[in-house]
Structures are given as C-alpha cells and as structure tokens.
C-alpha cells in the first residue's frame, strides 16, 4: 500500500504576527511544530503500513525549515520526506497550495491513499485536503474517525456532530482525519537519530509543470481584507487569604456590582 500524508509546519505561539501589507502570517521568526491534526493522519498511515505493508511518504509545502517537520515525521514512522519550496509559492491560499501539492503527487506517481489532518491550526479552513482530491479527480471522505480496509476498499466512519456516517470509498482516494481517530506515538532516540540522517527530496517550481497564474499570492483567488491578532483578555480577580465567608461576601459584591445578580 502506497500512502501519502500531507503535513504542514505551523507556528507554535499565541503571539501571531501579521504582515500588514499582505495580511499573511509572518512565519520566519516564529517557533514551529507539525500541525497536530496532521500527526493523527501520519499515525493512521503508519498503522496501515504496519498492518498491510507498503510505504508512507510525508509531503509538505513551505520554507526550507519545514524539512525539520518532515524529519520529525520520519522519526514517527514515515519512510520518505518530500518538501515543496520556492519563493514563487509564498502567500498561497488553500486553492494555490492544493494545486501545487496535487501536481507534486502526480509527479511522485501511483498511490493508494492520501491522508491529511482535518485542518491546520493556523488557518482553520479545512479546505486543502478536499481541494487536493478535486484537483486529482479522486474520491474523498472528510472527518474520518475510523478506517477499515478490505479488498481495495476503505470503510470510513465519518464524524458528525450527532454521530457517525459509514462511507465506503474505493482507491485511490483521500481522507482527512479527526483527532479522535488515534493517539499519535512518540519518537525514540533511535528513530530520531535515523531521521536526522534522512535525505529530504526537494521540489521547486522549476521541477514541476505548473501554471504560473495559480501560484503564490498573485495566483490565489482568496483576498483577505484584514487580519489581526485578537486583544488579550484581562486576567480574573483572585480572592486570596480570605476566610470562606469573607470570600463569599466579596464575590457576591462583585456580582452585584456587575449587575449579574
């Protein structure tokens, strides 16, 4: 079974900085992590490999430092890492990103299943996975909470607010997964050392047959009118050093003053 997992390196901070001219996140100076939902997708792929054999390739589009995220994925069970990086891709929205990733997947050759996290924690759009499937013209199931494989077909439990929908999907296909599908494993010292020696395959715009009008900020149909970091909430009031009766009276006083009671 040939499995491809799309992962994204996302900012690991609550202090997001926005470029006021492009309305995009300034990523260069921020600490980064592998998108948590993508780790669930990776774990699902590794478990399928362990059960049925095959290979797991992790694919990411981003700056050169995203190779660190790919090596982390290799330490968690992936076999190969592929990085798509080029200044021509900077500022890409979900359409442009999915277009480039789909073209890379075509270049890599045949596959059985593409797995993605349900969404990235920086954009929260949940669009890239489904859009990759549309570009490739393959079936897709989103919000997968359980995957079962038999005779070239996946039975997928698709999570809803009020339960699950059971969907049958033939291969090749794509699934986006939710957090409840599994608990991602931790790397070991041995797998970390092996991953550090791994060679990441790199694609640039010149290595692919791409339509320049669909690349980067200029090729993105999404236009962000304004982006900003929300104001930090003020901390609450602590009633320290008071007896229970005095603390209760103080609390009631606050609630009366706020016209809550």
Automatic annotation (TrEMBL):
Domain Electron transfer flavoprotein alpha/beta-subunit N-terminal span(s) in chain numbering: 22-212
InterPro entries documented for this protein: ETF_a/b_N (IPR014730), ETF_b (IPR012255), ETF_beta_N (IPR033948), Rossmann-like_a/b/a_fold (IPR014729)
Matching Gene3D superfamilies: HUPs
GO MF terms held by the record: electron transfer activity
One Pfam family this sequence matches: ETF
Classification via SUPFAM superfamilies: Adenine nucleotide alpha hydrolases-like (SSF52402)
Name of the molecule in the record: Electron transfer flavoprotein small subunit
Organism per entry: Desulfosporosinus fructosivorans
